[in-house]
Design brief:
about 270 residues, paralog of FGE (formylglycine-generating enzyme), 4-stranded antiparallel sheet, 6 helices, disordered N terminus
Amino acid sequence: MFMREKYSITLLLILMLANKHAVADLTDIEFVAIPSGSFVMGTTDIEDALIEIPPDSNLRITDEQPAHKVKLSSFEIGKFEITQGQWFSMMGTKPGPDKYWQHPKWPSLPVVSISWNMTQNFIQILNDKDNSYHYRLPTEAEFEYILRAGNDQLRPFETENMNEYAWTITNSGDVTHPVGQLKSNAFGMYDTFGNAWEWVSDWYQPDSYKYHAATNPKGSKAGTKKIRRGGSYHCASHIVRSGYRAADNPSQRYSVMGFRIVRYKR
């Protein structure tokens, strides 16, 4: 009887460990713990942002105001953008340009040509497989919080040092690059600016900042476009700012669009 009980306990432990590692192997996603805190969301130095915009541009950035104080609870977010390797291991598909899948380091490139709707399919599979955590896209407020990383200027680094932190049109060769190659931000996260635009959960409304909740805002309840943040390898520097907002139809797929995810204990 003792040997049978010992065998049963051992088998149970093996199965528990196997299940744990199955989830880890399936996702291979590293997360960073972001502490709770408050920050000013939106662009306070709007005149400085306007000066950067080329004279022949019709870009409008009034949707970055009013700047307003936001309080966030702690959360965990991906240290890197979701990669092609992680996407393929989960979904078994190869979205985006063929040249990225033929790249010698293809598993470490950020997966692109991902619509907002496609992110939801990926996240649903994760949630079905992992009983310990719930996964989702970051809110726009959470994403701006990690973009700013404690800084209230246009960027958390000097513009002349952007190439040290972000893949943009000036240094990317107009292609994606393996994640984590440049400097991290103050939270220890990589490629929050540049490389790939990143979808967030919120619907876009140009005046949504007027109605934001003061704590953990989730944006507008409805809309026709979802927000993306951070800029990409194809962007000029005036777009790669903490406060810059862009949006597209949830079904839209461009070769500059990717994502990262948030998780929290169930």
